[in-house]
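Changelog-adjacent note: as of this version, every example in the card shows the full chain rather than a window. The one below runs 163 residues end to end.
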Amino acid sequence: MSDQTARRQTLRDDELDPALSEVSRTVIGCAIEIHKELGPGFDVSVYENAIAADLKAQNVNHRVRPEIDVLYNDKEVGKFTVSLEVDDRFIVEIMSCPDEIGGMERDSLRAKIKNAELDMGLIINFARRRLRDGLVRVLNPERINELRGETSHDDDDHEESDA
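Full-length structure tokens:
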């Protein structure tokens, strides 16, 4: 059985909060336009700044490179930084790496969204020739279970590689 078929089915777009879907599509749309204009090859900060400018122009609430608390047993034990936090609902990790987005990047993002109690995260890798090959959406399994009315499982298999 392949990795794709072994994964538990993720939420369909129509099962997600429409406002969350809308703002995530806005971020992805900005990324696509930036990739068309700039292409691959620049430093991550160039793409972060470009997306931030586009989001500001579209009046999308966001923070660039925010420091987010890491909590353990309800105590702050550190902080992490991401490229963007959008609408207080999800985070975006921007990459500019010729490699494919792997399990380590997905697992890291999943840990961050779970710890921050956010709904989802996006990984956008601008180094890919086709941007859609560098887009990954990772959903917070605890939030998914809440939406489905299920009890929380330690199930980290909710993700979708084509954002």
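Structural remarks: Residues 1-9, 155-159 have pLDDT under 50 and may be disordered.
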